Amino acid sequence: MSAFTGTGTMIRFILRRDRIRLSVWTLALVGTTAVTVPTLDEAFPDEESRQARAALMDTPTGVVFGGPGYGLDDYSLGPMLVNELTASLLIALAVLSILHVIRHTRAEEESGRAELLRANVLGAGAQSTAALVTLTLVNLLIGGLIALSIIAFDMPVADSLAYGLGLALAGISFGAIAAVCAQVSEHGRTTSGLSFLVVGLLFMARVVGDLAEQGGGLASWLSPFAWVQQTRPFVDLRWEPLALYGAFLVVTFAIAHVLAGRRDLGSGLVATRPGPVGAGRLLRGPTTLHLHQQRGSIITWAIAVALFSFAFGTLATEIQGMLEANPDIGVILGGDVDDAVGGFLAVITAYVVMAGATFGALSVLRVWSEENAGRAELVLSTAVGRAHWFGGVLVVATSATVFIVMVGGLGLGLGASVAIEDFEWVWRMVEASLAQLPGALGFVALTALVLGLLPRLTFLVWLWLAYSALTTMLGALLGFPDWAMNLSAFEILAKPPMDEFEVGPYLLYLGAVLSAGAVSLVGFRNRDLVTA
Questions:
Q1: Percent of the chain having pLDDT more than 70?
Q2: What is the pLDDT of residue 376?
Q3: pLDDT surpassing 70 at residue 322
């Protein structure tokens, strides 16, 4: 029996198991592209309006989320699509690819299912190979359909194919990063945190390089986020940067294969430190036990958000430099450096809140994992009450979400303060993060509410999170009406320091969060458990 025996069977199994999940991802990403192309064409129908948009894309915020800005001198529909949409598509592909690889590798080992499968006629490398093959197929399908959707609007065929292929290769690269990280830790959540940390650093490298030098500096060339845009589709097409993806994938897959051969099934290269024989006083209650179980994930997410925030905060000097070099940008942003810096940092704060919301939802979803594994039934068969156990989960998820969002605000403030030597920004950004905090806590409350009443509808949480994130990033661009914007969890509240803080909506939002949490406790007490 070879190491790849049974790979074909595993590929069919994964595709069948994830047929709905992968179909939703594909429709969402391809549909977003198909809707964006005509929307951009209608929103900016003439040269004057497109060049005004190009001026906005030449601002610091535009560079961060748009890239090096090829084609701004003649801002036609093609360059506009690449600059406006690529970052969002790549972030979504990164999430899809990382979660897919971990779901079918590390999570299978952690649950014990991998050991059961390996006890039959299944090669040692079959599961990981099947995960990467299916990931490749899905990314190529998404990239191909995106290319076809662009071609359908009479865009150049070669440029469209290059763009779609670049997106697909980028998505596969993010999955390859997750495959390497899966060899390090024996826990799926830690692996996820490490993977997103690496991808976040690569995104930051692209941003630093694009801000440092027009067209992208050395730092951006070190990141897979940059290579798809460096092909310059619809401006000056060149295929050579796509070869970097090939080299990256060969090296990364080789590293993952070598590392996999150096560990035992179910273990990680970094061994988990054994705990004490007896539990301390702080581990003799449900809440502290939940906190102990999630401490690694909380620390990893907090470090990743802190590094992300601090790095973006230091870009405040780049904003000042761009304003000095191009006074027209100052007119576009309001004419005041503090206003421009504040607007930029307010946008980044929204991303910090998104990270906190994602972690909060994942933290509460541990309840569902514990139920399906049968551990919840064992715990609740003792003297531990349902409300006590479920309430402990909510306390930990809420506290961790608050901590992560505040760490992000502190990182932004420290980065900006160090860069422009004005430490007043530390407190301003902590205040800004707290002002948007209910947006993150809303997902803790929604996840708890769904688990308390209808636990099989947890996909609704991710649908709202995806909608909220896409609306915040692309809603204004796509011309969403006010009611559609207000359905986003991140658009309901003001965004200091760009906006004035409003007490009324803030208190109403917190009241809704608390009410949902209370209803979820009652629902969990009254519903049947999912037993193993």
A1: 93
A2: 85
A3: no
Q: What is the pLDDT of residues 91-138, one digit of tens each?
A: 999 999 999 999 999 988 887 888 888 888 888 788 889 999 999 999
pLDDT digits (tens, 9 = 90+) for 392-423: 999 999 999 999 999 999 999 999 888 888 88
Domain endpoint, select from 269, 301, 316: 269
Q: Are residues 171 and 295 in the same domain?
A: no
**Residue 334 pLDDT greater than 70, yes or no:** no
Amino acid found at 41: D
Rounded distance between C-alpha atoms, residue 131 and residue 102, angstroms: 9
Distance of CA 313 to the CA centre of its chain: 19
CA pair distance 46, 39, nearest whole angstrom: 13
Cα-trace Rg, the chain: 24
Closest-CA residue to 69 (of 60, 57, 51, 53): 57
Tokens of 494: 């003001």
Helix axes of 242-260 and 157-181: crossing angle, nearest 10 degrees: 20
Q: Burial-class residue 403 by CB neighbours within 10 Å (0-12, 13-18, 19+).
A: middle
Contacts 24+ apart (CB under 8 A), 37-45: 37/77, 37/81, 37/149, 37/150, 37/153, 37/155, 38/153, 39/477, 39/478, 39/479, 40/77, 40/80, 40/81, 40/84, 40/477, 41/77, 41/153, 43/477, 43/478, 43/479, 44/75, 44/80
Binning the chain into helix, strand and coil, the percentages to the nearest 5 are 75, 0, 25
Residue 134 resides in a domain: yes
For residue 247 the two structure tokens come to 């080299």
Q: How many domains, in total, are found in the chain?
A: 2
Residues 295 and 242 in one domain: no
Q: How is 230-262 classified by DSSP, letter by letter?
A: HT-TTTS---TTHHHHHHHHHHHHHHHHHHHTT
Q: How far apart, in whole angstroms, are the C-alpha atoms of residue 445 and residue 435? A: 17
Domain that holds residue 48: 1-114+121-269
Instruction: With respect to residue 278, please indicate whether it lies within any of the assigned structural domains.
Output: no
Q: Look at residues 213, 239, 269 and tell me which one is the last residue of a structural domain.
A: 269
pLDDT of residue 434: 94
Same domain, yes or no: 69 and 195? yes
Asked if residue 273 has pLDDT above 80, the reply is: no
Determine contact, residues 160/233, Cβ cutoff 8 Å.
yes
In terms of domains, do 50 and 146 share one?
yes
Whether residue 407 is found in the same domain as residue 530: yes
492 shares a domain with 372: yes
The size of the chain, in residues, is 532
Residue 136, token pair as written in the block? 């490749």
Same domain, 322 and 219: no
Within-domain flag for 494: yes
Q: Computed from CA positions of residues 318, 321, 326, 332, in that sequence, does the dihedral angle turn out positive or negative?
A: positive
Is 518:387 a contact under the CB 8 Å cutoff?
Answer: no
277 occurs within a structural domain: no
- Verify that 62 and 152 share a domain, yes or no: yes
d(CA 402, CA 355): 11
pLDDT at 333: 47
Token representation of residue 241: 């940067």
Structure confidence by residue, pLDDT tens digits, 192-202 = 888 988 998 89
